[in-house]
Amino acid sequence: MSNLINFKIDGISVEAQKGETILNVARKNDIYIPTMCYISKTTPCASCRMCVVEAKGVDGFVLSCNTTPTQGIEITTNSSELNTQRINIMKLYDVNHPLECGVCDKSGECDLQNKTLEFNIERQNFSTRDLSREIKDWGLISFDPALCILCEKCVHICNEVIGDDAIEVIFGGYASTIIPKNSDVLDCTFCGECIAVCPVGALVSSNFKYSANVWELNRIPATCAHCSAGCPLEYESKNSGINGDDSIYRVKNNFEYTSLCGAGRFGFDFDNKDAGDETSFNKAIQALKEAKAIRFSSMITNEEAHILQLLKEKLNIKLFNEDARKFQEFMRAYSTISGKLHHSGSLDAIKQSDAAIVIGSRISTDNPAVRYALTTASKHNGAKIVYAHPMEDLLMQNTVTQFMKYEVGTEEGVIALLANAILQKADLSDSERAFFDDLDLGYLDAESNIGDEEIDEMMESFSRTKNRVLIIGNDLMAHSRSSNIAKLAALIEKYSDFSLVVVPKEVNTLGSSLICDLDKDEDISDVVGYNAKGDFIISFLSLANLAVASLNQQEGTFVNIDNRVLPTNVAVKFDGYTLNDVASTLGISATNTVAYTKELKKSSGFKEVEFDDLENFLSANGDDVRGYLLDEVSCKADGELEELDDLPEFNGTIIYNVNPVLQFNAQTNQAEQLESDTTLRGSAQFAAAARISDGDRVEINFGAKALIREFKLDSELKGTIALNPTFDDVIDAGRYRFEKSKIKRVVE
Amino acid sequence: MKNEQFNNRDVSNEYFMVDIQDYPTEPWDKFKRTLKRTFRIELFVGLWVVMREMIRFDIHTVSYPEEKMPIGPRYRAVHEMKRLWESDAERCIGCGLCEKICISNCIRMETKVDENSRKEVSEYTINLGRCIFCGYCAEVCPELAITHGGEYENASEQREHFVDYAAMLTPLDKMKAGAQQEFEGFGAITPHEDESVKKTPLSY
Q1: What is this model's ipTM?
Q2: If you classify domain B79-187 with CATH, what class do you get?
Q3: What counts of helices (H) and strands (E) characterise chain A?
Q4: Domain range enclosing A693
C-alpha cells in the first residue's frame, strides 16, 4: 500500500505523507492557513485555534495543525464562518493587551500585531477588568505577563526541544500565566529559546530590553563559534551610543527549525576590541621566522587552519593542536576499520532516532545541540536513550531512559562490552569474531562496573527500534586507548544499523583535524601561539602580543558535527592585522583569507567552492542549505583490533574537567552576560573524602599542575568526582578529562 | 488653468535683441563713461527718497537683532521636546519613529530600561547641520513630544551643529509657569479634540 494520501485543499489536489498534518501539507503547497501558536519543531500546542479549516462531510471545524487528512477529503481553508471565527480569536487575544507597541521590544516583528492588522480588527466587542500583573525578572530573561497571550510556545519548546522543563502554564481563566516550574525563580540552563519563540514582547532578553528597535539593527547571518554544533544564528548589530562603532546587540535564530543554547544567544560580545599595531606586527613576523613550532587552538576557521598548514610547510616547523590531533588520531583509527573518513551520523539523525547511546561525554554542557536533539528524539519518537558515563547528569534526567554508570578510565572496556552485545549476531570477519570470543567479559564487567543485566536491559529496550545512533564524546578521544576505542566504534557502525556521531570538542576541531598535519605537542621553546599558549602569542583573546580578529570579526568556514562546511561572516569591524596579513608578509599571499576556501584539502572531502557561493540559510521548509556537506572519502580498511589493555583504576578523589552550563572556552569566558563560575563543584561525599567543605579555597594537584579554586558543595552531584571548569583556559586541550588528583585546603 | 501656454515651447517670436553699445576701449572714452554714470540725475533721485523717509520718521525696516519679527505658530525651526501637562514628565517614550523617518538621517537616539522598567531615552541628538526642517519627525511622533519651535538662530562655526535632548526639553520652571507652547504645525491635534474623545464601552 502506498504511503501517500491524496486529498484536496481549496480545490487543489495535494499529497500527504502518512502522518503529515493538513497544515504541513498546506504550507508545503504554498496554501496559507493562519496560526498563532504553531511551531514546526514541537508537537502542535493547539492553543490558538486559528488554524481551523472545514472538511467536507465533517461537522464543525477541524484543527489543521494536529489532524491528518484522510484519502479524498476536501478541505476549505477560507470561508466567512472561518473568518468570523478567526476574527473573534484575534479580538480575544487583543483584550486588554497593553497598547505599548511603540516601546515594545518586538518593534513590529509581532505576530499579534500582524494578525490583528491582517484580519482587520476594527472594533473590540469583548472586555474584561484588567489584572495587575508585574514584570518578572528571571536573570537573563525578563517576563511581562501583561503582554503574554498564552500561546504556550515557550512551554512546549522548553519541554520538548530543550528538555529543561523549567516553565509551565498555571491555568486560571483570564488570570492564567506562565510561571517557573516548581520554583519561585527561573531555574534552567538559560538557553533563551523561550525568548526566540515568543510571538509578542512578553519574554525578552533582560540585557537587550528597550535598547534598540528592529529596524536599526543590521542582520549578519553567521555560524555560532562556541561549540562544534555550528548552529545557524544572526548577529544583530548597530552603532553603540551616539558616536560609537557598531557592536552586536543581540543574537537571533531561526527558531522555527533550529535551536540555540544560551552561550550562542547571550555570549556574543567576544569580539576583540584591541587591534595590533605595526611594531607588534613586525615582532610577530620576527617571532614566526625564528619559531620552531606554532601551537593553535581549534577556535579557528578552516581558512586560517589552512594558512597555518601552509606556514608549516613553508617555514618547515611543527604544528601543535592537541585537541585536534587527538580527534584526528581517533578518526584515523576509525577509518582503518570503516574504510571512510567521516562519521555517518548527524544532529538530524539524532533527532529522528528512536534509540541512542551517549558515551564518554557530559553532553548537556559539552554540546547542547546534541542534548536538544536527544530531547527532541525522546519527546517526539519516544526514543530510548542510554547514557553511559561515570557521573549522572541531572540535566539529562528527563531524557535519559537508562543511566549506565561505568568506572572512570574503563571506557575501552565499556565500548567493547557494548560492541559485543550489539554485534552478537552480526556478520563479522573471522578475526573480528575471534576478538569478541576472546573477550574476558567477567573481567570487563567487574572492572567497568557494568553488569550483564544492564547490557541486557539496553538490548531489550532497543529491540524494536529502527533508527539508532551511537554518540561518542571527548572522554573516548582523549583516552590513552583511543585508537582501539575508535576501531570498536567503527565496527559497531559498520556491522549494525547504528549511525555514529563523534562529538568534536571545539568549534572547528573537526576542520583543523582534516586540514592540518599535526605534530605531538612538545614543551619546546620558540613556539608561536595562535589563540593558544606560546612564547609569542597571536590571539583574539586577552594576553596577546599581536591582537587579531576574533571569530565574529572574520569571514571563514567551520566544519561542524554534521561534517558540514558552514560559512560565518563579519559582525563587528576589526581594524588590525589578520593571520593572512602575517602569512602574506612571509610569502604566502592571498588577497583575503576567504580566498583559501576553494583551496581547502580536497583529499579530506572539501569541495572547490568559492566562499561567496556558500549559502547560509534554512529553506522555508526547514531544509538546511547552509554551506555544503563534505564529500565522503573512502580509504583503506586495513585496521586490526588490538587486544584490550588492562583497565586502569582511578581511586580516591577524582576531578572531571568539564565546563558549567553556558561556558565552553576562553571565548565564552569573555562574554559579559554569561556567568563565569570557576568554582570546583563536588558532592558532600567528595567533600568528605577530600576533607574540605563548602567555600574552602583548595589547591588541586594533578600531573605537574597546581590550581587554586574555590570549592562549592553541589547537592545535585553524587559520588567522589568533582567538576572542574576549564573555560578559564587552565587545562591543556586534549588531556583526558578525568584526573586523579590531590586536593588540599589552602590556609590563608 | 490651461496648459497651452506651457506646452508652447516655441519662444522665438518673443525674443528681441537688446541694443548694447560697444564697450569703450580708449582710456579717454572710459573716463567719459565714468563721469556720465557718476553725475547723472538718477543718483539724486535715490538719495532724495531716503532723505524724505528719514524726515517722515515712518521706517518699516526691522532693526534685527534688537528687534525681531514674530514667528508663525507653524514655523519649523529648531526642535523642542515637550512635557506632559499633567505630570511634567517627558512625553518622549523612545519609540524611535523620528529616528526612523528622518530623511536626512540627522536624528540619533539611544534608549534603555529605566528603574521603573519603562523605556527611557538615554541619548538623543539632532544634527542641525544636516536637518532640512521638513517636519516629518514632529508629524510621526505619536506622543506630540518632538515638535518644531520658533528658535531659528542656529548659526554655527561648523557644519555639524548638534542639539541634544536636555537642550530641547522644556525647562521645568517654564513648565511650572505654564509657559510651554504647543506646536500648531504638522501632527498637532485639532482644536477642541477633547470634546470628541469617547470612553471605551466596557461590559463590566
Answers
A1: 0.82
A2: alpha beta
A3: 22, 33
A4: 654-745
